[in-house]
Amino acid sequence: MGSRIAIRLAACAALAVPALAEEGTPDKYLELLRSDLRAGKVEILTEALELTDPQAAAFWPIYRQYDAELAALGDRRVALVKRFAEKYGTMSNEDAGLFAKDWFAFQKDRLKLREKYFGKIAKATNNLVAARFGQVENVLGMLIDLQIAVELPLME
After folding, report:
1. 45, 62 Cβ separation under 8 angstroms
2. What is the value of pTM for the model shown?
3. Kindly report the CA angle at 63 between 62 and 68, in degrees rounded to 5?
4. Could you tell me if 77 and 33 are in contact, meaning their C-beta atoms sit under 8 angstroms apart?
5. What is the pLDDT of the chain when averaged over all its residues?
6. Of 155, 17, 14, which Cα lies nearest the Cα of 86?
7. What is the pLDDT of residues 73-106, one digit of tens each?
8. CB of 106 within 8 A of CB of 80?
């Protein structure tokens, strides 16, 4: 992946999370951050995928479906972070176990989603386009995960 695309991915990820762990963050602000992230992703994908016109015609409707499903997963992640913030400092052993279970379920569901859409995109375009898409999504996901990890303190 070109260094220019990697830098844009990092900038996109920086928009995604800064306020998630803050208590009382207005939902409208979170939605604005998410819309900025989506716009940045579209630009990055357009550049990284190098789609022909027929590929673009096939890819973008599939991407919109993917993005809608990813947004639902994003809602789950936000809810998990909010739950963590609410329990911070008072988390019981049971709470910690439930939180971990839900976090692992989120991670598994995100991987299933990526795998599902790799297949759809590969079928509609080709394996190279699908792999590039997967690579961009993976890098962005890791950057967002890292930002969340850095901003959340260890459980107490």
Report:
1. no
2. 0.77
3. 100
4. no
5. 82
6. 155
7. 988 988 898 888 888 889 999 999 999 999 999 9
8. yes
